[in-house]
Design brief:
This protein has helices at about 20-25, 105-110, 130-160, 170-175; strands at about 5-10, 30-35, 50-55, 60-65, 70-75, 85-95, 105, 125, 165-170. By secondary structure, the protein is of the alpha+beta class. It has one domain (about 5-175): ph1033 like fold, CATH 3.10.590. Strands 1, 2, 3, 4, 5, 6, 7, 8 and 9 form a 9-stranded mixed beta sheet that branches. A hairpin with a 6-residue loop joins β3 (about 50-55) and β4.
Length: about 180
């Protein structure tokens, strides 16, 4: 079955999931949660997702992983009484955009024009040809930053520091170290 590429958009300034909660998720390795899905009729369990931070500060891809449930109706987090659908997800990668490199929105915009990389609804499916470009860009980003990520994780472990900077699951870490 074909897997879609879902873009989860996140603006920490207006979301109930603020930057503090995101950094705690990295620190506590809470890689699973749920997110609002605008195109609930196109998203399904098993789809790949990329979380795009929008708004103020560094903007771009800050997480990736897999959608783990089909969308289901839920409470409107904005309080406007809209019909909202949510899917569960599991991250294989999360990065603090304030301390480490991210795949920036400007790079996405240059390589995938015509998609709104700065706002709009969350939980939208990227068309197949655009998804292929995003996946290549993300793979390149991981390769280009693998040494930085490995050094940071080693430093955090050596100093027994709280890690609010980077989460990479073991399978993905092994994959990017082997590239």
């Amino acid at each position: 079955m074909k897997k879609n590429c879902v873009i989860l958009k996140w603006n920490p300034a207006i979301s109930s999931y603020n930057m503090s909660r995101f950094l705690q998720a990295i620190e506590w390795e809470e890689s699973s949660s749920d997110w609002s899905i605008a195109q609930y009729d196109r998203v399904k369990a098993g789809d790949q997702f990329f979380m795009l931070k929008v708004g103020l500060g560094m903007c771009g891809i800050v997480a990736s992983g897999t959608i783990t449930s089909n969308p289901s109706p839920g409470e409107d987090w904005s309080g406007r009484g809209r019909k909202v659908y949510y899917s569960d997800y599991d991250c294989d990668f999360m990065v603090n955009p304030e301390t480490l490199p991210i795949l920036e929105s400007s790079v996405l915009e240059d390589n995938i024009p015509g998609f709104d990389w700065h706002g709009g609804h969350s939980g939208v499916v990227l068309e197949d040809e655009l998804a292929a470009v995003l996946k290549r860009l993300f793979d390149k980003y991981l390769r280009d930053n693998a040494a930085i990520f490995a050094d940071r994780l080693a430093l955090i472990e050596k100093r027994s520091m709280d890690n609010d900077q980077l989460y990479i699951d073991e399978e993905l870490l092994t994959e990017i170290q082997g590239r």
